[in-house]
Amino acid sequence: MKTVADFARIFYYRLSDFLSDESERLPLWLPVAFAAGIGTYFSLNKEPYFFIVLCCFLLALFLLFDARKSPKYFFAALLLAAYAGGFACAQFRTISVSEPKFKTASKTVSVTGTVLNAETNAYGKNRIVLKNPFVSGYEEWAVPKKVRLTLKKGDPLPEIGEVISLKALLFPPSPPLIDEGYDQAKALYFEKIGATGFARSSYETIAKAPEKTDFASFVFKIRQNINDALSETLPPDISEVAKALTTGTTKAIPTQIADSYRDSGIAHLLSVSGLHMSLIAGAVFGCVRLLLACFPAFALRYSTKKAAAVVALTAAFFYLFISGNALPARRAFIMIAFVFTAVLFDRRALSLVAAAWAAFFILLFRPESLLSASFQLSFAAVVALISAYEAGIDKFRKHIAKKEGIPFFLISCVVALFATDIVAGIATAPYVLYYFGRYPLYSLLGNLASSAVTGFVVMPFLMAGTLLIPFGIERIPYEIAGYGIAFINEAAKRISELPAAVIQTPSMPFWGMLCCTLSGLWLCLWKSKARYYAVPFFILGLFSPSFHLMPDLLVSPGASIIAFKNEKGNLILPPGKSDALVRRVWLGKNAQTETDASGCFECFKGSGYHDSVVDFSCQKGLCLLKKGNVTVAWTKGKRAFKRACDDYGKQIAVLFSGIPRHRADCKDFLTVNRTDSLRNGTISAVIKDGTVEIQSIAEKTGFRPWTAPFPMISPKSEILPFFEKSYGLPVKARLQD
User: Fewer CB atoms inside 10 Å of the end CB: C or N, the chain?
Assistant: First the structure.
């Protein structure tokens, strides 16, 4: 009978054989280890000591040096060093961007600053970013380096570089509105934006924008000229899509068009990424090589392929800046740079090695990119496509294309398109479900309708029209591209209106997304049959939204609105339009629409709501939620709170109140007042086994540099421990008291 030691020995030998067979693929796991270190840093609840992190990284380097002569342990030490390096890199980046930030909301103040950015957001509101602002009533050291403000309705966007002054309300950047939701505070922290707010008056221009001759100003003027030319030539609904494809300006795309692109599975067209960059670079590469072939004296002496690669790479570099230098565009440019560099050195152009290096360089300089949906979607699609084509799709396509006749060539193109869309759709599905909670079923049909038009009509003529702007003859190419965009818009609209065009599910939990990511990497990075062991885990991750459970009660920051869960698992919210963003986030997390949850007047007035699980009633500002033998209450006014204390004091376990702390106190039950909810963010309550478990967003986000209570990291404190200040106990701690 075999012992545990025997099984361990067998496992060791089989693992050694497996790693020996996959030795060529082992380096591909180094960027994965680097990313794992970054992810571990951002997942922590408290900021680690930088001195300890630095010591761990140096220790990993020492182990790597010590294991240099042992092939068995060298790669393990290399993975450990990459992991520690990613962790240290993320913390160093966090320290390097630390700036002052607002910790509490301000009163109406006077703000004066230089306009750094001006845009119209997806909801049609004009928004600006001011740098080096002066805020009345605040010392200079306490003022953020950048603030983001939403202008009053009707106010035009100021020019970049203007110095303006206005009255505004300022707030700390918002934490997530629900568990595993979008963290605005973290995103703005790395942009060095320390406050957001709303204008209370129209702005006044103090000084005009100075004339600048630097590269950034030059690129901005080019982008502005292209946008103006597109607006003058094409109708608004077409010109905004054309701007997105050319200059990366997506904020003013009409909501209906953006929704139709998303629901038809072609939303990636609106974000400058690998498709657009490869079309531009490929077109330039082909044209230059064809042009050089017309000169035999040059073509016979020099490599036209290498010369065309240099010109195409230069064109891609300029397109990167003209398109706004967004993260997907940067990722695509790095990939294309590796492709053309491989051409220059007579190496294989497209490989997983190039994708690994691209990911490593992006994460090295911008570790926070790992948390963005664009990074995850981009690399998931690229890695899956390269791996699939290496596994045989490309060979199958070439086999069909070898047969004579145009029909076989067209069949090979259709096969390649089908395979590309299916592979990319499966690879990106976990991230689509995690971030958006909806998946387009007819994405294959949408891509079939748009890919050829984009590649052969829209992008070539947009590029031609842009190059002809200095000569004033850009109208004809832009109009031709406009016909192509109009066709795509109509196709997207019709596809999105098909029955069951979108599957809407509760958001995928984090563990499900992580399960899909790790199993997907295992499936793509190895070459042996052992890769297929990951398929069941990937499928498990895809079905993880079915395990998603919403809490029984949600209370917004400030306790302004609540939502409770009925027996079907749906959220019921009070009718109205207040706290629109909170409503949208909560319902989206649970795969609901506004009409599913709000508008339930009888739930919050008069008859209330009753089913087999919960009993909910509201009278004169006092709402009671009863589940089992536990009652939870919510009040907004002082009279309702007094009535709850006097009439229901012995029945209520926890009461959420919209009035401040000094006015909300009752000895008969636990009170979570407005002050608590403002400091702790969205609060959730789960009623189970006769108890109430309360958890706040503040407990989830912890005490990190991007949270409001955390002080700015000064140079003197970079390698010292971070001490948590007392800004109010979490709600869970109050319950334990």
Answer: N
